[in-house]
Structures are given as structure tokens and as C-alpha cells.
Amino acid sequence: MTKSALASTMDELQRRLHPLLRQSGFRKHGRTLNRATVDGLTHVIGFQMGSFDPPGTSHFPGLRENLYGRFTVNLGVYVPEVALHHGGGEAKSVVHDYNCCIRTRLGRTAEKEIWWKVFVDEALIAELLERLQYEAFPLFRRFEHRQQIISKFRNETDNTKLMVVPRIVCAIILLSRGEREEARRLLAAQAHDHTRNPNHPAYVIGLARRLGIEITS
Known about the structure:
This protein has 217 residues and is an alpha+beta fold. It has 2 domains: 3-144, no CATH class; 147-210. 42% of the residues lie in helices and 14% in strands. The chain has 7 helices and 6 strands, in the order αββββαββααααα. Strands 1, 2, 3, 4, 5 and 6 form a 6-stranded antiparallel β-sheet that branches. A hairpin with a 2-residue loop joins strand 1 (27-29) and strand 2. Helix 4 packs antiparallel against helix 5, helix 5 runs antiparallel to helix 6 (180-193) and helix 6 (180-193) runs antiparallel to helix 7.
């Protein structure tokens, strides 16, 4: 299937899923859909097509797969103040999954993630609709408010399946709410505990300073 044919087929797949997503409050921007929450967060669904590897590229099952002609569905929760100060990058008119501090993929497990073949099939449409309803939407309900994020991640001391450096994320949210001392405590703990990367403490100290907090490792 040519690139243009793949894109047209992907358009049709999205069109079949759009009624459910529109009814759930998502607005479409190409391959990305956004939904704002009452607390100023953004829920993100992104359809990502596999890239075309140049001729001669070696593919190895389980290591480097040939994903051309396949797609996956990225999920994310965007927190503006976190994106502004720490990774992801502040979003413009459209929020993409790479702007988010909470990220996963539809159907992801500890062992693998799913890349479906790009084609229009009733069984595939039914599977995607079911996964959106029973995987994506429950995830988004868990993270509609900043307090839900704080409650879930503030005691995490290492990366999780959904979030990288959760103490930094929580510290930035807490600081935006005026909880300065708790934010300082989390940043200090992050700088002190994570010495496996020799550059990480300096990054945390620098970030804290930019946020107006003084800590040491």
C-alpha cells in the first residue's frame, strides 16, 4: 500500500472512531484529539503511524520492528505548568502526547505494546472502540484534576509506567498551588536519591533554582 493509500485508510479508521470520541468531548486536529478538563488539564489521544525505514534497514523481531503500514494509539495527560518547566515542551494550539507528563499507549502491557495493521475492518474497529471505552477513558477519569495526580504519584520515588520522575512533576504542581515547602522537599529528595545518573542532581538543583527554590544534593 502506498503512503497516500495508507494515509487515506488511516483517515477512514479515525472517521469510524470519531463519533465516540466527539461524544466524549474530544476535538480532532489531524491525527491528534484533545479534551480539556475543568481543572485546566488536557487529555490527549494521538494516532501514530509507523515510519518508513530506508532501504537496507535491518529489522529484528522484538528489537527493531518494521512498523511501516502499522499504527498505534498514544494517550497522554497534559499539565501546562509541568510542560513549561520540565520536559515535554509547552503546547501551542494543539497538545500532542509528547507534551504530556502522563503517557502510555492503548493496549500497552509490561511486556509489549500494540501496533495494528492499517486497514479498515469491522473487527478492528470494534476492538479499538472497546479499548478506548475500557482503557483510555478510565485512565482519563483517573487524571481529571491535579489533586488526582498528586495523590497517585507524590510518594513514588522512581519512574513509573505512566510517568518519568514523578517527584519533579508533583513538585511543580504543588508549587503552582502555593505549597512551596512540600515542593522543596520533593525536589531535595529527588536530587539526593537519584545519583545513578551523575548529571541528574545538578539538573534538579538547577530546575529548583529556576523555580525560585534553593536546594542542595
